[in-house]
Design brief:
about 230 residues, alpha+beta, two-stranded antiparallel sheet, 9 strands, elongated
Protein backbone atom coordinates (compact mmCIF):
# COMPACT_ATOMS: atom_id res chain seq x y z
CA UNK A 1 0.00 0.00 0.00
CA UNK A 2 1.40 3.37 -1.05
CA UNK A 3 1.51 6.53 1.07
CA UNK A 4 -1.34 8.95 0.45
CA UNK A 5 -0.01 12.36 -0.55
CA UNK A 6 -2.98 14.19 1.00
CA UNK A 7 -2.41 12.53 4.36
CA UNK A 8 1.23 13.59 4.40
CA UNK A 9 0.57 17.17 3.33
CA UNK A 10 -2.22 17.66 5.87
CA UNK A 11 -0.05 16.22 8.64
CA UNK A 12 2.86 18.49 7.72
CA UNK A 13 0.58 21.55 7.72
CA UNK A 14 -0.92 20.53 11.05
CA UNK A 15 2.49 20.26 12.70
CA UNK A 16 3.68 23.54 11.22
CA UNK A 17 0.51 25.36 12.27
CA UNK A 18 0.41 24.04 15.83
CA UNK A 19 2.59 26.87 17.07
CA UNK A 20 2.00 29.19 14.10
CA UNK A 21 5.48 28.45 12.78
CA UNK A 22 4.68 28.99 9.13
CA UNK A 23 3.15 27.52 5.99
CA UNK A 24 4.24 25.32 3.12
CA UNK A 25 2.56 25.95 -0.24
CA UNK A 26 1.43 23.01 -2.39
CA UNK A 27 4.12 23.74 -4.98
CA UNK A 28 6.81 23.83 -2.29
CA UNK A 29 5.48 20.61 -0.83
CA UNK A 30 5.44 18.84 -4.22
CA UNK A 31 9.08 19.68 -4.88
CA UNK A 32 10.16 18.69 -1.38
CA UNK A 33 8.07 15.50 -1.32
CA UNK A 34 9.54 14.35 -4.64
CA UNK A 35 13.07 14.91 -3.32
CA UNK A 36 12.32 13.13 -0.04
CA UNK A 37 10.95 10.11 -1.88
CA UNK A 38 14.05 9.99 -4.08
CA UNK A 39 16.36 10.24 -1.05
CA UNK A 40 14.62 7.34 0.69
CA UNK A 41 14.55 5.28 -2.50
CA UNK A 42 18.26 5.78 -3.21
CA UNK A 43 19.11 4.78 0.35
CA UNK A 44 17.51 1.34 -0.05
CA UNK A 45 20.40 0.03 -2.13
CA UNK A 46 23.03 1.10 0.40
CA UNK A 47 20.99 -0.28 3.28
CA UNK A 48 20.43 -3.57 1.50
CA UNK A 49 24.13 -3.91 0.69
CA UNK A 50 24.99 -3.25 4.33
CA UNK A 51 22.41 -5.72 5.67
CA UNK A 52 23.70 -8.49 3.39
CA UNK A 53 26.98 -8.27 5.31
CA UNK A 54 25.30 -8.63 8.69
CA UNK A 55 23.79 -11.71 10.35
CA UNK A 56 19.99 -11.77 9.97
CA UNK A 57 17.29 -13.18 12.20
CA UNK A 58 14.63 -15.46 10.78
CA UNK A 59 11.61 -13.91 12.50
CA UNK A 60 8.62 -13.26 10.30
CA UNK A 61 8.49 -9.47 10.50
CA UNK A 62 11.93 -8.33 11.70
CA UNK A 63 14.18 -9.64 8.92
CA UNK A 64 15.72 -6.41 7.65
CA UNK A 65 16.84 -7.77 4.28
CA UNK A 66 13.33 -9.02 3.62
CA UNK A 67 11.80 -5.71 4.71
CA UNK A 68 14.05 -3.64 2.43
CA UNK A 69 13.34 -5.95 -0.48
CA UNK A 70 9.62 -5.52 0.19
CA UNK A 71 10.07 -1.75 0.06
CA UNK A 72 11.81 -2.10 -3.30
CA UNK A 73 9.02 -4.21 -4.78
CA UNK A 74 7.10 -1.09 -5.81
CA UNK A 75 9.96 -0.14 -8.13
CA UNK A 76 10.85 -3.56 -9.55
CA UNK A 77 9.73 -3.85 -13.15
CA UNK A 78 10.45 -5.75 -16.35
CA UNK A 79 11.00 -4.17 -19.73
CA UNK A 80 11.44 -4.92 -23.38
CA UNK A 81 13.59 -3.37 -26.10
CA UNK A 82 12.99 -1.62 -29.39
CA UNK A 83 14.97 -0.82 -32.53
CA UNK A 84 18.00 -2.73 -33.67
CA UNK A 85 21.23 -3.51 -31.89
CA UNK A 86 22.06 -1.36 -29.87
CA UNK A 87 18.58 -1.66 -28.41
CA UNK A 88 16.53 1.10 -26.84
CA UNK A 89 15.05 0.29 -23.44
CA UNK A 90 11.27 0.26 -23.15
CA UNK A 91 9.95 1.89 -21.05
CA UNK A 92 12.36 4.77 -20.47
CA UNK A 93 11.96 5.15 -16.69
CA UNK A 94 14.96 2.92 -15.91
CA UNK A 95 16.80 4.01 -12.78
CA UNK A 96 18.97 0.92 -12.31
CA UNK A 97 19.31 -1.91 -14.81
CA UNK A 98 18.97 -5.37 -13.32
CA UNK A 99 19.24 -8.64 -15.25
CA UNK A 100 19.33 -8.80 -19.03
CA UNK A 101 17.81 -11.81 -20.82
CA UNK A 102 18.29 -13.18 -24.32
CA UNK A 103 15.44 -15.47 -25.39
CA UNK A 104 14.59 -15.97 -21.73
CA UNK A 105 18.11 -16.91 -20.62
CA UNK A 106 20.11 -14.62 -18.39
CA UNK A 107 23.11 -12.83 -19.89
CA UNK A 108 25.63 -13.36 -17.13
CA UNK A 109 28.53 -11.44 -18.65
CA UNK A 110 28.41 -7.68 -18.55
CA UNK A 111 31.31 -5.95 -20.31
CA UNK A 112 32.56 -2.40 -20.02
CA UNK A 113 33.54 -0.32 -23.02
CA UNK A 114 37.28 -0.80 -22.49
CA UNK A 115 36.83 -4.59 -22.42
CA UNK A 116 34.78 -5.00 -25.56
CA UNK A 117 37.60 -4.79 -28.12
CA UNK A 118 39.74 -7.31 -26.27
CA UNK A 119 36.83 -9.74 -25.88
CA UNK A 120 35.90 -9.47 -29.55
CA UNK A 121 39.46 -10.01 -30.80
CA UNK A 122 40.28 -13.07 -28.76
CA UNK A 123 39.04 -16.40 -30.24
CA UNK A 124 38.61 -17.72 -26.71
CA UNK A 125 36.36 -14.91 -25.49
CA UNK A 126 34.45 -13.98 -28.62
CA UNK A 127 30.71 -13.91 -27.83
CA UNK A 128 28.34 -16.23 -29.66
CA UNK A 129 24.58 -16.53 -29.81
CA UNK A 130 24.91 -19.30 -27.24
CA UNK A 131 27.11 -17.16 -24.97
CA UNK A 132 26.34 -13.50 -25.73
CA UNK A 133 27.62 -10.54 -23.73
CA UNK A 134 26.24 -7.04 -23.33
CA UNK A 135 27.24 -3.45 -22.68
CA UNK A 136 24.87 -0.93 -21.10
CA UNK A 137 25.73 2.61 -22.09
CA UNK A 138 23.74 5.83 -22.60
CA UNK A 139 20.48 4.00 -21.88
CA UNK A 140 21.09 1.52 -24.68
CA UNK A 141 21.90 -2.18 -24.67
CA UNK A 142 24.73 -3.27 -26.95
CA UNK A 143 24.49 -7.04 -27.34
CA UNK A 144 27.29 -9.10 -28.85
CA UNK A 145 27.51 -10.76 -31.27
CA UNK A 146 25.89 -7.99 -33.30
CA UNK A 147 24.05 -10.59 -35.36
CA UNK A 148 21.48 -10.48 -32.54
CA UNK A 149 19.07 -7.92 -34.00
CA UNK A 150 15.57 -8.92 -32.87
CA UNK A 151 14.33 -6.66 -30.03
CA UNK A 152 11.73 -9.21 -28.92
CA UNK A 153 14.59 -11.52 -27.95
CA UNK A 154 16.00 -9.02 -25.42
CA UNK A 155 14.21 -8.32 -22.14
CA UNK A 156 15.40 -7.04 -18.78
CA UNK A 157 14.51 -6.38 -15.16
CA UNK A 158 15.07 -2.97 -13.61
CA UNK A 159 14.32 -0.51 -10.84
CA UNK A 160 12.09 2.29 -12.10
CA UNK A 161 12.63 5.95 -11.31
CA UNK A 162 10.10 7.10 -8.70
CA UNK A 163 7.33 9.25 -10.16
CA UNK A 164 7.17 12.86 -9.00
CA UNK A 165 4.89 13.33 -6.00
CA UNK A 166 2.00 15.71 -6.68
CA UNK A 167 -0.59 17.16 -4.31
CA UNK A 168 -3.03 18.30 -6.96
CA UNK A 169 -5.35 21.16 -6.15
CA UNK A 170 -7.85 23.71 -7.32
CA UNK A 171 -8.61 27.14 -5.91
CA UNK A 172 -11.84 27.63 -3.94
CA UNK A 173 -14.15 30.65 -3.74
CA UNK A 174 -12.13 32.12 -0.90
CA UNK A 175 -8.80 31.58 -2.62
CA UNK A 176 -8.06 28.46 -0.60
CA UNK A 177 -6.29 25.43 -2.00
CA UNK A 178 -8.62 22.44 -2.37
CA UNK A 179 -7.29 18.92 -2.78
CA UNK A 180 -7.90 17.32 -6.18
CA UNK A 181 -7.39 13.58 -6.01
CA UNK A 182 -7.64 13.11 -9.77
CA UNK A 183 -4.75 15.52 -10.34
CA UNK A 184 -2.57 14.01 -7.59
CA UNK A 185 0.18 11.41 -7.55
CA UNK A 186 0.78 9.52 -4.31
CA UNK A 187 4.15 8.50 -2.94
CA UNK A 188 5.27 5.16 -4.35
CA UNK A 189 6.86 4.19 -1.05
CA UNK A 190 5.56 1.53 1.30
CA UNK A 191 3.09 2.78 3.92
CA UNK A 192 5.65 1.77 6.57
CA UNK A 193 7.72 4.78 5.45
CA UNK A 194 5.00 7.34 6.21
CA UNK A 195 6.45 8.68 9.45
CA UNK A 196 9.91 8.80 7.86
CA UNK A 197 8.50 10.78 4.93
CA UNK A 198 6.71 13.28 7.18
CA UNK A 199 9.81 13.84 9.30
CA UNK A 200 12.01 14.45 6.27
CA UNK A 201 9.49 16.81 4.68
CA UNK A 202 9.38 18.77 7.93
CA UNK A 203 13.16 19.10 7.87
CA UNK A 204 12.95 20.74 4.45
CA UNK A 205 9.99 22.83 5.61
CA UNK A 206 12.14 24.22 8.40
CA UNK A 207 14.61 25.44 5.78
CA UNK A 208 11.85 27.01 3.68
CA UNK A 209 10.29 28.91 6.57
CA UNK A 210 13.70 29.56 8.17
CA UNK A 211 12.88 27.82 11.45
CA UNK A 212 16.02 26.17 12.93
CA UNK A 213 13.99 24.48 15.67
CA UNK A 214 11.98 22.42 13.18
CA UNK A 215 15.12 21.58 11.24
CA UNK A 216 16.94 20.39 14.37
CA UNK A 217 14.06 18.29 15.72
CA UNK A 218 13.34 16.70 12.33
CA UNK A 219 17.00 15.93 11.66
CA UNK A 220 17.36 14.33 15.08
CA UNK A 221 14.34 12.11 14.36
CA UNK A 222 15.75 11.07 10.99
CA UNK A 223 19.18 10.34 12.49
CA UNK A 224 17.67 8.31 15.32
CA UNK A 225 15.57 6.29 12.91
CA UNK A 226 18.58 5.55 10.70
CA UNK A 227 20.65 4.48 13.68
CA UNK A 228 17.90 2.17 14.92
CA UNK A 229 17.54 0.54 11.50
CA UNK A 230 21.24 -0.33 11.40
CA UNK A 231 21.75 -1.66 14.91
Amino acid sequence: MAINVNTVYKTVLLILNQQQRGYMTPDEFNKVATQVQLNIFEKYEDDLNQQYRLPQNDTEYANRVKNIEENLQFFQKTGTTAGTNPFTLVPTDVYRLGTVFYKGSELTQYAQRNEITQLLLSPLTQPTTNFPIYLYENNKLYVYPTTIITPADITFSYLKTPADVVWGYGVGNLGQFEYNQAASTNFELNISEQSNVITRVLAYAGVIINDPTIIQVAQQEVLQEEQNSKQ
